[in-house]
Specification:
By secondary structure, this protein is mainly α. It is built from ten helices and no strands. Helix 1 runs antiparallel to helix 4, helix 5 packs across helix 6 and helix 6 packs parallel to helix 8. The N and C termini lie far apart (42 Å).
């Protein structure tokens, strides 16, 4: 009597698990495509600034925020989006629209990852993966802040993986907003300097690269520590 529903449930979990990994692969592919294929040419800064500004003027702030969120979901680099938002709307509105758009995009990817991956992954994950998931969930806000401060993976990918963990959505969004503040503030205040550093490399370019590398190294050390603790 109960075999049918059980088998159907297991089959559904297998399909969702397969879909989750396919979605992860798609996000990674998109992130690489924005950097390494002709798609990169579509990320023209002047054209993006003009388009976002026009969208906001014609359809209102909600349309600008929505387009920002959609771009986050399809793995357009968050750093570029924040810079475009600051240049299009100025420091104050750029911060507001950037935080709102990134948070909406994060929520969409997070919920998609949760729907596809949380139950399916928890049934097949090893003890170390389950430990890390529980650790992330136990320190939800702090974990989310750390994930945002350390640029170890594309924005959309982090959101989906977080959705498959035990982090609560509200903790994730709150921690993400805090963790994104440095990027948002730097983009808003130093937008023109960043553009100049990208087009005419100099000491400022080296400074940005050094900060990024330091964050990656520090975040990797934390993740390795968690992984070793899971083995004990």
């Amino acid at each position: 009597m109960h075999d049918g529903p059980t088998e159907a449930h297991h089959a559904r979990l297998r399909h969702r698990r397969r879909g989750f990994f396919l979605a992860i692969a798609a996000v990674i592919g998109l992130a690489l495509a924005w950097q390494l294929t002709p798609l990169r040419d579509t990320l023209d800064l002047n054209r993006m600034v003009a388009g976002l500004r026009q969208l906001g003027q014609q359809l209102g702030p909600a349309a600008a925020v929505g387009s920002f969120a959609l771009a986050c979901v399809i793995a357009v680099p968050l750093s570029i989006l924040m810079l475009v938002c600051a240049l299009a709307f100025g420091p104050t509105l750029g911060i507001v629209y950037g935080i709102c758009g990134a948070s909406l995009g994060a929520a969409l990817s997070f919920l998609f990852g949760r729907w596809l991956g949380q139950e399916a992954i928890s049934r097949v994950a090893g003890p170390r993966v389950r430990y890390i998931s529980q650790r992330l969930g136990h320190r939800g806000v702090l974990s989310s802040i750390a994930l945002r401060l350390v640029p170890v993976a594309p924005f959309a990918l982090v959101n989906m993986v977080a959705g498959a963990s035990t982090i609560r959505l509200r903790d994730f969004l709150f921690g993400s907003a805090i963790g994104m503040l440095p990027l948002v503030l730097v983009s808003a205040v130093f937008a023109e300097q960043i553009v100049n550093a990208a087009t005419r490399p100099g000491w400022l370019t080296l400074l940005f690269v050094g900060i990024t590398l330091a964050l990656v190294v520090g975040g990797s050390a934390v993740l390795r520590r968690w992984w070793r603790e899971a083995e004990d």
